[in-house]
Amino acid sequence: MFSGIVEATARVKALRHEGDNILFFLECPFVDELTIDQSVSHNGVCLTVMELPGDGSYAVTAVQETLDRSNLGSLEVGSLVNLERSMRVNGRLDGHIVQGHVDTTAVCLSVDELDGSWRYRFIYRVPRDLARRGYITVDKGSVTVNGVSLTVCNPTEQVAQDDDSLIEGSFEVAIIPYTHEHTNFKEILPGTRVNIEFDIIGKYLAAMSRINEL
Questions:
Q1: Which candidate among 12, 68, 70, 197 keeps its CA 20 to 30 Å from the CA of 84?
Q2: Which residues pair with 66 in a beta bridge?
């Protein structure tokens, strides 16, 4: 489990394709503290440390399912990735409960530089059934974008015009200078695809509501 508070960023050093999977080699400030089988969030995706070559890098594997549901498949050598190690039991929950299970991806619609902050707007699509199960954003609720715990502003939902089986949602987040500098938000532009994890509490509440209707 994670909190959505990015601990560091890493640059992709190398890629190695193994069948349908991709082995990513990354360099980060805490590589000497990592151990084999340790869980680390990469742009919000929980991956397991597989190799420690001893050259200042470590390796994780992303299987095809992960590549299909996230933006990890678009990473290249030099790409900047948000990292967070799993929470300590005795630590503070500074963000919100994040599982490291990306639900879908969203596309950045706009980036507006304000007086001392930035406002980003994202758009996503989910099947109607998933929307009913809590895979949506709510005003002042929590959402994880590329592993960053953020507060939702001005969310919208509507039936997709080109496919009535899908719900099209959008939302805004405000990014302070510290987050902008210390995460890969500084490299997100209109058209950039990001990973989204909806709030697990909202999913449970939606599930209980459906059960109560049975």
A1: 68
A2: none
- Residue 166, domain extent: 104-213
- SS3 label, residue 120: strand
Per the domain annotation, does 185 fall within a domain? Answer: yes
- The answer to whether 104 and 123 have CB atoms below 8 angstroms apart is no
Task: Dig out the tokens for 202 from the structure.
Answer: 């909202």
In this prediction the pTM is 0.94
The structure tokens 């500084």 sit at 186
| Predicted pLDDT of residue 210 | 80
Q: What is the dihedral of CA 63, 171, 156, 169, to 10 degrees?
A: -20
Tell me the CA distances in angstroms from 73 to 33, 124, 137, one per residue in order. 26, 18, 25
- pLDDT classification of 187: cutoffs 50, 70, 90: very high
What are 75-127's pLDDT values in tens digits? 999 999 999 999 887 777 888 999 999 999 999 999 999 999 999 999 999 99
CATH for 78: 2.40.30.20
